[in-house]
Write a structure and sequence with these properties.
The protein is an all-beta fold and 711 residues long. It has no helices and 58 strands. The protein has a domain of 94 residues. A four-stranded antiparallel sheet has the order 1-58-57-56, with no helix packed on it. Strands 2-3-4-5 form a four-stranded antiparallel sheet, with no helix packed on it. The chain has a four-stranded antiparallel sheet with strand order 6-7-8-9, with no helix packed on it. The protein is elongated and about 85 Å long.
Length: 711
């Protein structure tokens, strides 16, 4: 077993502030998933809510982040999805996270969270600045329900009760609370990722008991913000006019509307149009005491009306987008357009931006934005600051001991030239489609165990179609198709027979559930098993296995003849979406490097587990029971030491207490212990031991890639 010390420079976590920052050290390119919310507290603490890996917190303005998950108290199945963030306006230690399973509160600056509302999908939580004991939250019975309600707290968020009755069919995106009169509150409804309600603004003047729609003459409301200089007034922006009676959702590609200032006159708001000179635009509002700034969502630029006329401050063509491309940067939040931006309450020049993949910030009033998820440590090479939210599938180590390759959903192909200290995109045009080099979908890869720089990877624009197998001989810098004979279906389970001739490798892969073989280094392929439900393969010296929802299959002659082996529990549900939570079956097949006859398999699904064969796969016995087992590995230095990977989450989140993360046995599987130090969530999909460096690599859904010394 290796005893090497692993150090990850700038990995984006602060050990002195993060109680989980021991053990596993993460290394990622940064960003990549859907962020539903971002916000800043009164002292600059940032929270960002993701759709897969919970929340992220930064205490240094986004220079570094750490993940908030089950180890900090997010304890429900769908608490991996954080849809709202909130702050006490005076006490920086009190923080809030809205999830698909209610509201969580921290009283110690984010080290630990406790649930204070048991159920509901929470989309916003706000408190009155001068009366912080009073706050409101936006509640929905389900994540995809347009049935919004408002809850009120009068004890600083410890308890909540529903107030009033809003009209039916609303999806509440955003709340505004008067800073000194907490009985005055606004609720903005609209469209988000999952459903839509009428794009309208409602006002209550009695603590949420009664509600009245306001500013209907402005049309479909996109955003609203209180005037910092005069909080009895507010700013509004609209998508434009109402085209159809009875509309409920924002129309596709609206032409855009205008920005307004609204002042109360009796029982109505008097609107003054402010952006006539800009013309119709889809605007988000960023007011300061002496000016109004607006963010044009369509053109991705910032304007201000300081001095009585509108001036353009900056736009995407002069902003920094990191490792992605302009086409995939500065989009809108999946939590709704109105949740895309969040001003910093202590600095009017600072604004935060969240979208489907990244987080951004400006510190100069909107002239320049830059992403705050990663640092460019050298040209084209990036290192995460600790905020990721990615869907990793596979990781492979190059024969040279320095290069590492990663296959992911959405991010596609990434490679490291320095053993994970930094990452570069290795996506190949045109095989990643509209992603270009900014992403793609790669579900499988394999690196040659003896030839440095030789690696194969599957690449596609969409995860469910048009996959192409590619080969590189220069560490992923350039790729050539290695797809002759393969159908354009989902590729998974690529493996290399390490005992095949070095220059004419035998490779196996599954395509659309069937097994294909290449005997010439991937130049051409032939179907060798019409399995219909095989997703993973393994090969060594002519002994080949293939498995998936169709159970486990074995060939002793290099893929010529096949037989089904293993107990009935190896067979899972007939579901082609093998990344889906409803899938079950053989998820990994691993040879023991110390014993030619010993093989292990991980079987994912209820009442399954890790199984071992001592006779080359003819008979099997279970060595670990579990519902969420994805992988098994044998320590390269000790045949008695086993590692197993368990995760209830893969593609869309979901935390189950039966998800055990990384497990280790020191006695051949008789007894097991967890190895989860440093994991916000106990999610482990793949484990890759590196015998030369004495390092164990982890592929963790949502969190990404991590490594630690082999114990």
């Amino acid at each position: 077993m290796g005893l090497a010390l692993v150090v990850l420079a700038g990995c984006g976590t602060n050990a002195s502030e993060d109680p989980t920052a021991t053990g596993w050290a993460f290394t990622n390119p940064g960003g990549g998933g859907a962020f539903h919310a971002i916000g800043a507290g009164p002292t600059g603490v940032l929270l960002a809510g993701s759709d897969l890996s919970g929340a992220y917190i930064s205490k240094d303005g986004g220079q570094s982040w750490s993940a908030i998950g089950a180890l900090r108290g997010l304890g429900g199945f769908w608490t991996t999805h954080v849809s709202a963030v909130g702050f006490d306006p005076q006490d920086p230690d009190i923080l809030y996270l809205g999830t698909e399973e209610g509201l969580f509160r921290s009283r110690d600056g984010g080290h630990r969270f406790e649930r204070v509302l048991e159920e509901g999908y929470i989309t916003d939580v706000r408190f009155a600045h001068e009366r912080p004991e009073v706050g409101y939250l936006a509640w929905h019975p389900e994540y995809n329900a347009a049935a919004g309600a408002v809850f009120r707290s009068e004890d600083r968020g410890l308890s909540w009760r529903k107030v009033g009755n809003l009209p039916s069919g609303l999806r509440i995106l955003k709340l505004l609370v008067h800073p000194s009169n907490p009985d005055v509150v606004y609720a903005l409804s609209g469209e988000d990722r999952f459903t839509c309600g009428e794009a309208a603004l409602f006002r209550s003047e009695d603590g949420g008991q009664g509600w009245r729609r306001v500013a209907a003459e402005a049309g479909q409301i996109i955003d609203a913000a209180l005037d910092p200089a005069e909080p009895d007034a507010l700013y509004l922006s609209s998508y434009g006019d109402v085209w159809d009676e009875g509309y409920r959702c924002v129309h596709d590609d609206p032409d855009g509307g205008f920005a307004y200032r609204a002042v109360r006159e009796g029982n109505r708001l008097r609107l003054t149009r402010l952006s006539e000179d800009l013309g119709p635009r889809n605007l988000l509002l960023w007011p300061a005491r002496d000016r109004l700034r607006v963010v044009d969502l369509d053109e991705r630029e910032v304007w201000t009306n300081a001095g009585g006329s509108w001036q353009r401050l900056g736009g995407w063509d002069d902003w920094e987008w990191g490792w992605t491309s302009p086409d995939h940067s500065f989009g809108t939040s999946p939590g709704g357009d109105a949740k895309t931006i969040a001003p910093d309450p202590k600095d009017p020049e600072v604004l935060y931006w969240t979208d489907w993949q990244f987080l951004y910030a400006t510190h100069d009033g909107g002239r320049r934005f830059a992403q705050i998820v990663s640092d460019e440590v050298s040209p084209g090479r990036f290192r995460s600051r600790g905020v990721d939210n990615i869907v990793p599938f596979e990781l492979a180590l190059d024969a040279d001991g320095h290069h590492v390759y990663a296959a992911l959903a959405d991010l596609g192909c990434f490679a490291s030239d320095d053993y994970g200290e930094s990452w570069r995109s290795c996506n190949q045009e045109p095989y990643s489609g509209s992603w270009g080099r900014a992403g793609g979908n790669s579900l499988t890869l394999a690196a040659d165990p003896e030839r440095p720089g030789v690696v194969w990877i599957g690449q596609a624009q969409d995860i469910e179609e048009d996959h192409t197998l590619l080969k590189s001989t220069d560490f992923g810098a350039h790729w050539q198709p290695a797809n002759d004979g393969l159908p354009g279906t989902i590729l998974s389970g690529l493996t290399i027979d390490p005992k095949s001739p070095k220059e004419r490798r035998a490779l196996f892969v599954t395509a659309g559930g069937d097994v294909y073989k290449s005997g010439n280094d991937g130049l051409s392929w032939t179907r060798v098993l019409a399995c219909g439900g095989c997703r993973y393969t393994a090969a060594r010296g002519g002994l080949v296995f293939a498995g998936g929802e169709a159970g486990l299959w074995r060939s002793a002659d290099g893929g010529g003849r096949w037989e089904r082996v293993g107990p009935p529990v190896f067979t899972g549900e007939d579901n082609p979406d093998f990344w889906d939570s409803g899938w079950s079956g053989v998820a990994a097949i691993r040879f023991d490097p110390h014993d030619e006859e010993r093989v292990y398999v991980a079987v994912f699904g209820e009442e399954r587990g890790i199984y071992m064969s001592d006779d080359a796969g003819r008979t099997w016995s279970r060595v670990l029971a579990g519902d969420f087992l994805w992988d098994v590995r044998v320590d390269p230095g000790d045949a008695k030491v086993l590692y197993a990977a368990s995760s209830s989450a893969l593609f869309s989140g979901g935390y189950d207490p039966g998800s055990r993360g990384v497990l280790m046995s020191r006695d051949g599987g008789a007894h097991w212990e967890t190895l989860n130090e440093g994991l916000a969530w106990p999610f482990a999909r793949r484990l890759v031991p590196d015998a030369e460096r004495g390092v164990l690599w982890l592929v963790s859904p949502g969190l990404g890639f991590a490594r630690r010394p082999l114990p």
